[in-house]
């Protein structure tokens, strides 16, 4: 039997709710901004000791939510040997892409082609490869970094729903991560092609990249940008950030990555830590 929470997810006007949350979060009115920040810190037990700025130094709630960390707060593993976690969070699922399908939860799957916005050519290269889905909770650091060195080849905005992303929705909403609004980025690296897909969720007010700034979200059409060699990153470099949200899905070609066997669904990860070995 479907829970009331799932029914509510289907009934709510996802984008209208998210736009309204975005307006509140971008407000620079001091009393509103500071109240939102302080209540959020208390509600989610946010560790501010590692933040580069103090509570009173943010221009808006969004500025706080995408806060930078103090230098050295996230030391990087040896990228010559390992794939790095792109974000703080928890593993939702991790494993092998089987016949183009990516495991979501409890018998539910979605395809790499769906996740990438219909790019069947790129999806075919990941068949038999490895995926990792990492969920960022509200208390986490919300900047997204490179899991490996690579040159940006394309970035595709894919319009979609904005279901909440958590274990309950993963177990009850078909194709959740390939159904929600997302930005699918493809990179060419020393070990071949890999993807880093930033997936939105309910009240995610935006996705931002270091190469083009704020992505126009809540839009109706798919938008793909192609790139040459102008945007090249080292492992651990920042590539983007979530303004309120959500989840990162990594895809690697076959034979390139062997995940750390200790990483199961629910395992905590920190940006820059080794999550797999390069092969």
UniProtKB/TrEMBL annotation:
Pathway: Phospholipid metabolism; phosphatidylethanolamine biosynthesis; phosphatidylethanolamine from CDP-diacylglycerol: step 2/2; Lipid metabolism. The keyword NAD does not apply. It is an enzyme of class 4 (lyase). The active site is at residues 88, 145, 246. It catalyses: a 1,2-diacyl-sn-glycero-3-phospho-L-serine + H(+) = a 1,2-diacyl-sn-glycero-3-phosphoethanolamine + CO2. Binds 1 pyruvoyl group covalently per subunit. The modification Pyruvic acid (Ser) is found at residue 246. It comes from the Bacteria. Its cofactor is pyruvate. NCBIfam families: PS_decarb. Catalyzes the formation of phosphatidylethanolamine (PtdEtn) from phosphatidylserine (PtdSer). Belongs to the phosphatidylserine decarboxylase family. PSD-B subfamily. Prokaryotic type I sub-subfamily. This is Phosphatidylserine decarboxylase proenzyme. It comes from Erythrobacter aureus.
